[in-house]
């Protein structure tokens, strides 16, 4: 089993069931998550193999412990890491697809190898990449932005989560790729520069794959023990199967109950669904988001055009936010309080 699939399997086993829509911030102490990537790798690759001998202090246990330490060293090399993507005048970099995982009926997770095994992607929070390809039958290259879902400190690889859209040239091209194929990428594309405690409370309103830049922000906040920002997440999808990164979000929700809460809304919920039903509405956002009169808050929005129009209005261009309209303006938020990915 590959490290990519093993880490996902370990996460699925560790993540508790999602809480319902009525959940509020907990009042009990938080637990520290530590280095989750290393934890899952060691759990899958080291501790399971050692078994009870590891805990009994036998020669076999010592050998297993040595193996665990060697695995950790291999996973997290020491010393500063070179950046694969440096921006500026750097052109497109060709990355080889190493692994593909089916997430649901129309979404796949792609792992691309960086040019060198000890490199990091070079992305900062929040930023994205440009992908470029010439799909079959196309006369010109297609260029599309994506926000990677792998950690910025991960070495040797970068992961993309891509939903296939009808008549979507880049998403179709990616879904047709096989391990060994290559994709041209460029970046980072700076979005919203984040620093610890930049805002006291942020709200993330996402639809579909618009969850990816929101998850990037969440990782930065909860991976930093000095960052005490509160986070409220609202995610709209068509069906329960369409909820992306729900295991990763469930882990955050249960690890940081005082500072993170998530609300899910489905257009077509199953009979047993206890979350929100229909679309992301004014009533829901008024109930769960920090009020516009609160100091030092920020609302981030990312999703399909229809949702963006309803909630905040779409961006005018990649570099221009455009006018704030829709639900957030009606609720009293100002343009300075809202950022559109």
TrEMBL record:
Domain FAD-binding FR-type: 90-195
E.C. number(s) listed in UniProt: 1.6.2.2
UniProt superkingdom: Eukaryota
Family annotation (Pfam families): FAD_binding_6 (PF00970), NAD_binding_1 (PF00175)
Keyword terms: FAD, Flavoprotein, Membrane, Mitochondrion, Mitochondrion outer membrane, NAD, Oxidoreductase, Transmembrane, Transmembrane helix
UniProt keyword Methyltransferase, yes or no: no
Localization terms from the record: Mitochondrion outer membrane
PROSITE patterns hit by this protein: FAD_FR (PS51384)
Catalyzed reactions per annotation: 2 Fe(III)-[cytochrome b5] + NADH = 2 Fe(II)-[cytochrome b5] + NAD(+) + H(+)
GO cellular component: a single term: mitochondrial outer membrane
GO MF term list: cytochrome-b5 reductase activity, acting on NADH
Gene Ontology biological process terms in this record: ergosterol biosynthetic process
Classification via InterPro entries: CBR-like, Cbr1-like_FAD-bd_dom, FAD-bd_FR_type, Flavoprot_Pyr_Nucl_cyt_Rdtase, FNR_nucleotide-bd, OxRdtase_FAD/NAD-bd, Riboflavin_synthase-like_b-brl
Coiled coil: none
Function as written in the Swiss-Prot or TrEMBL entry: May mediate the reduction of outer membrane cytochrome b5.
Family: Belongs to the flavoprotein pyridine nucleotide cytochrome reductase family.
Protein name, UniProt field: NADH-cytochrome b5 reductase
